[in-house]
Amino acid sequence: MFGNYLIGLREGLEASLIVCVLVAYLVKTGRRDALRPVWTGVGVAVGVSLAFGAVLEFGSRELTFEAQELLGGSLSIVAVVLVTWMVFWMRRTARHLKDELHGKLDAALVMGTGALVVTAFLAVGREGLETALFVWASVRASSDGTAAPLAGVLLGLLTAVLLGWLFYRGAVRIDLARFFTWTGGMLVVVAAGVLAYGVHDLQEARFLGGLADKAFDVSAAVPPDSWYGTLLKGVFNFQPDPTVLQVTVWALYLVPALALFLAPIGSGPSARVKKQKATDEQAEGGASAGTTA
Fold first, then answer.
1. What is the DSSP string of 203-260?
2. What is the DSSP string of 15-37?
3. How do residues 140-193 score in pLDDT, each as one tens digit?
4. Nearest-angstrom CA–CA distance, 118 and 108
5. pTM, full prediction
6. With 0-12 CB in 10 A as exposed, 13-18 as middle and 19+ as buried, what is 153?
7. Which among 54, 179, 69, 72 is positioned nearest to 129, based on CA atoms?
8. Are 225 and 265 a contacting pair, CB within 8 Å?
């Protein structure tokens, strides 16, 4: 349940912050008339995300077992790719997100109401679709049924909405860089478990081999129905008897992804810094030439 709560909190807070930035900018610039199109876009994005999740859940029930496993495994891998991209993207752009959204909103205000709806829809819809896909994959990987994982996601989303509202009202000051670093690192661990489970689905669908090749079996020491087995399964998608391929894929993803994520940003000069340095050197060279002349 904690893993799903983390997904809802992380993705929900990103969407909440985006909405806060859009609304605050319109209010501060005296464009309250543009709030309705923005909220319309947000509502459409939420509706599309819920519909997407419903299609994934109910549409897959009509398939055969092997087709369900093939679909589930494939979409689990897609979800891990999207979430990994999102985690690294937010890590690099969180500090400049406000300026980027302001620029897009200014352009939309010039173009009209339709552009405002589209801007809000795209800004929130991307987060919503990623959340729906990753939550669906995580629920499939959970042994707690459907109610507990969905309850965790819902609690995470409600917490994110509350934090977003408090952030907008100025009641809290969130260290976004630290927040996204901690939650991003934990989400990478969760994603590794979802990836391993997706590989297991593909093995059960007979798309990949090695289903009978177990890396280890600690079911006696960590029973799946025990409280600690359930806890490990809910947080890390831990499986007491994984295959060799599952463990290999899990390690090949988790170790480099976590190392890259925790590496300092900007350990070398960024492109912007290099460009600015070149401009300064060029200006200094022109000034020196003028002085010599």
1. HHTTSS--TT-BS---TTTS-TTSHHHHHHHHHH---SS-BHHHHHHHHHHHHHHHHH
2. HHHHHHHHHHHHHHTT-GGGHHH
3. 666 555 566 677 778 888 888 888 888 777 766 666 667 777 777 888 888 888
4. 9
5. 0.65
6. buried
7. 54
8. no
